[in-house]
Amino acid sequence: MTENPKIPRVNLRTPAVMAAVQAQVESHYRSEVVEKLRAAGGTLLKGDVTVKLAKQFGFCYGVERAIDMAYAAAKVFPDRRLFILGEIIHNPEVNGQIRALGIKNLIGQNAEARVDDLTGNDVVIVPAFGTDVTTLARIKEIGSEIVDTTCGDVMSVWKRVRQNAQDDMTSVIHGKAAHEETKATASRAMSNGKGHYLVVLTLDDTDYVCNYIRKGGNKEEFLERFRGAYSNGFDPDVHLRRVGVANQTTMMRGETEEVQRRIMAAIKERDGGGGEKSGQNYRFFDTICGATQERQDALRVMLDEPMDLLIVVGGYNSSNTSHLAEMGEQQLPTYFIRNASRLESRERIIHYNLHLKTEVSTDNWLPKRPVTIGITAGASCPNNLIEDAIVRLYALHGIARDELLA
To answer: Which candidate in 64, 87, 180, 181 is catalytic?
Structure first.
């Protein structure tokens, strides 16, 4: 390890750098077809195919900022080693572009950051999800240049869980325990050596916790059920007395709100029906990402319109994209695809099954008649991938891309 604390910090967001970055990013991710479709009110009819595009879809501001900063780092530091703590966002094509810029991933197969070989001359990008406090402190100690692209909505959650820790409240986090954002948030829930956390994913998890809050139970069974999803030293008999509910920002708002309601009800019941005591023992804040909610709301509106099927485009490990697919499959045939290559033919589609957690194939998926297809994409999906899917859908019906722009 070589420390070099004297290297001055560099401002990546100068007008000249960002202008060059914007041109490069647009060349990779811009879409004429999507722009035309959006300008036409989100509906395109060619031949026997009508495509409806959700009003809100694709890249959000936080994702755009993270990508811009990564491109800027590659441009400003051409002679220094560049690294990133995991994936910049959950989209394989975008992450491929980041690798093509010469930015290497520091996260190994064991999900641990390999930072000990860093030097003070290296550049480390923190992705939009953020990173845990231990990793960040180690990089600062080494003296590497840090390019922090953490989303502002994520940092808002961190503020809440840090406050929970200061007030001796356990943060119950609604999210996926293995998700980068949730792990980063959990690390802030133990601010200055204080505080604890517990991660719940489902309403079944929540009900189990609520029953324990009300009646107590088998501590060993509790700890086994939530293994890997709570802080060191967590004791449900002690650390569920005072609870603050937080969340991974890309969860479904309705489900997070239900987690909040059920835990609040359990604490009120345990504490004798509410009053000041319950108020002191429970708190929550609205920390669902605004872009996530906008995409869910836009899809909800579109699902009220007549459609034959829905295509959801994006990375399979994207939480916010997965929730869009969940919403769709409750109402009509829904196909969650990584990119247009999964639209193999009019007879066969390859798509991700959320329940089996793997790709599957479906035959005879496209009706052999005039068809209306809805399309949406999560906040980590670029417009060019949405265009590719639209173009492929029309190509399957003998309609070329040029005709879509006519």
So the answer is: 181
